[in-house]
C-alpha cells in the first residue's frame, strides 16, 4: 500500500511540474531538438545562434510558467550563454509562445516530453 502511494505521489508530482513547462529544448552535439511544447521560430533561431557562437555541445533549456510571466531554466549550459538566451527570450510575449507552431510530426519521445527517447526516435527518422 505504501509503495502504491509513493508511486501515485511521484506521478502526481511529475504531472504537476510538467504542467508548468511551456517548452523544452535539448542540445546534443551542437544540434537542437524541441522535446516538448511550442517554441517561437525566431527564438529557436536565436538559440541556434547562441549554440553555434558559444560552441555549446550539450544542455537543456526549459521555459517555465511563473507567477509573473515565464522564465528559462537551464541544465549543462554556462552562465554567459544562459544570459544571452534570457535576453532573447524577453523579446517574446506569452502570446508568441502560445501561438508558435507545434512540433511537426512529433515522435513518441516528443509527445511524452522525454529527451533521450525524442533524440533516439528522431535519429531513426533520418
Instruction: Output the helix-strand order.
Output: HEEHEEHHHH
When the domains are counted, the total is 1
Write down the Rg: 15 Å
Distance between the termini: 45 Å
Number of helices: 6
Q: Roughly what percent helix?
A: 40-55%
Oligomeric organization of the protein chains = single chain
> How many DSSP-defined strands?
4
* Largest sheet features: 4 strands, antiparallel
Strand order of the largest sheet: 2-1-3-4
What's the mean pLDDT score?
88
Low-confidence stretches: none
Shape: globular
Strand content: 15-25%
Class derived from helix and strand content: alpha+beta
Short description:
The chain has helices at residues 2-19, 41-54, 79-89, 94-98, 108-112, 115-124, and strands spanning 21-28, 31-37, 58-66, 69-75. The protein has 126 residues and is an alpha+beta fold.
What does this molecule look like?
This protein is of the alpha+beta class. It has one domain. The chain is 50% helix and 25% strand. The chain has six helices and four strands, in the order αββαββαααα. The chain has a four-stranded antiparallel β-sheet. Strand 1 (21-28) and strand 2 (31-37) form a beta hairpin. Helix 2 packs antiparallel against helix 3. The longest helix is centred in the N-terminal third of the chain and has 18 residues, at 2-19. The protein starts with a helix and ends with a helix. The mean pLDDT is 88.
Based on the model shown, name its key terms.
4 strands; alpha+beta; 126 residues
Amino acid at each position: 500500500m505504501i509503495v502504491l502511494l509513493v508511486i501515485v505521489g511521484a506521478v502526481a508530482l511529475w504531472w504537476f511540474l510538467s504542467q508548468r513547462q511551456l517548452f523544452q529544448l535539448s542540445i546534443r552535439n551542437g544540434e537542437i531538438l524541441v522535446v516538448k511544447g511550442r517554441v517561437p521560430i525566431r527564438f529557436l533561431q536565436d538559440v541556434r545562434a547562441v549554440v553555434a557562437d558559444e560552441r555549446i555541445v550539450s544542455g537543456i533549456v526549459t521555459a517555465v510558467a511563473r507567477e509573473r510571466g515565464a522564465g528559462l531554466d537551464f541544465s549543462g549550459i554556462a552562465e554567459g550563454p544562459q544570459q544571452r538566451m534570457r535576453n532573447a527570450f524577453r523579446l517574446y510575449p506569452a502570446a508568441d509562445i502560445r501561438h508558435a507552431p507545434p512540433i511537426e510530426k512529433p515522435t513518441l519521445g516528443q509527445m511524452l516530453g522525454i529527451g533521450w527517447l525524442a533524440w533516439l526516435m528522431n535519429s531513426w527518422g533520418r
